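In keeping with the milestone schedule agreed at the kick-off meeting, the structural modelling team has produced records for the first pair of proteins. Each record is given below as a sequence line and a structure-token line. The laboratory manager (R.T.) confirmed that both were archived under the project's standard naming scheme.
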Amino acid sequence: MKKTINISLILCFLLITVYSFSQNTEELFLLKKLKSISKDNIIALEHTSVCKEKYQIKITQPLDHNNLDAGNFTQRVFLSFNDLSKPVVFITEGYSASYAKNPAYQNELTNIIDANEICVEHRFFGESVPDSLDWQYLTVEQAANDHHNVIELLKKIYKGKWVSTGISKGGQTCMYHRYFFPDDVDASVPYVAPLNFASEDPRAYTFLENVGDSACRAKIYNYQKTMLKGKKKYLPKFKKLAHKKNLHYSMGLEAAFELTVLEYPFAFWQWGIFNCNSIPTDLSAKKMINHLDKIAGIDWISEEGVSRLLPFFYQAMTEIGFYGYDTTNFPGLITALKKPDFYFTCPENTICTFNPELMKKVDAFIRHEAQNMIFIYGETDPWSSTSVDLTGRKNMIKMVKKGGSHRTRIKSFYGEEKEKIYKSLEKWLNLKIIR
């Protein structure tokens, strides 16, 4: 008996073969392009359907862009490729970019505008760390030059529109890069990015006195007061939990307890994970401390926590600013903490002196010169207390999500608000977003 040939199966097999061949050819083409512009280490990465190809590149950067004899370091860059004809989303990460190695990772903006994606790890973080931590080279300007170099290099491949973006400290980094190199990209979308003018910017105090409703603020205050007044009761449980987590505090355990309690309202509103009804009033000491840990976290001001974030704290205390705590509502209750600020996080044998001049220049640039920027904020996020101020120019937009926290994204908006964001991106990047 003769076997019949299924024409449909043959055609399907041929189509799959042709498609696979074209994909492999395209991959080789892109890899060849990357190797032609960079002699640095290029590694192919696993990826899901969020992109066609994915690479990690280690790019050699000058430690000091003003003095090339100062040495070099390698900066980790993640590149997700879809099509050379599509725009590029350029992520100015403010910390480590290890998450970008995840095969399924894709930035929100990349998905919205159907783009290629480049994520740059910040100098002195993750694997982008020089052999010797010479803190004088960890500056906003040096980092902006890093990003400029990456863009100049990869623009040899990508000829379309570019939009820079970043979240929180990455959003700050995005702003600073635009200040130093305003023409590197066609548009920018910084998320929840503060623009601080002091190492203890007092605008946070006013914000926390008015955020939410009075009933919720009263619950927060009462929780803090209960913890501070009952220090003898709660401190042993704080110590036990710290020991369990193997945490140590250079300022002393009692001062660390007080500082963590002072951090509570900022952290509560920043993340917006817990509602006001979840704030405890008179539970066991263990449960009260566990709640403090869930909201404010007892790790981050420990020696171990500060060590992990040391580059951030250095930048906060010298250039990009931070916040402090108003202790006037707790007379006589702050006894161990000498000063409620973060200068204790300054690297050993290093003097941290804050200079506000650069942030003022960035502020003036954003108000009067910058073009095509969308700033995303959450209404109840304390970082929005030091958000940018705009002058009303049509090509500069500030979007504040009502009730939104530090987790606010474009997807948090609906209706006319989201449409305003989409239309601006379409105009500036000359593309059509699929609704």
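The second protein of the pair:
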Amino acid sequence: MKRAPNPLSALVKQERKRTGLTQSDLALTAGVGLRFVRDLEQGKTTLRLDKVDQVLKLFGYRTGPVRMEKPDA
């Protein structure tokens, strides 16, 4: 089942392609598994944050709190 893209998955895929890395290259360089990279790029909603940070660090990013906008009532 294909997952809907999200900003994080889109960012990782964009940065990976911009730097000329394959998914396998990214997994090896970041120290995570290929399956993890695939899940991340496909928008899996349950991922280990420490591994997400390992991937993001390669591109100069990190995870952090983001305030959600309140929906219009």
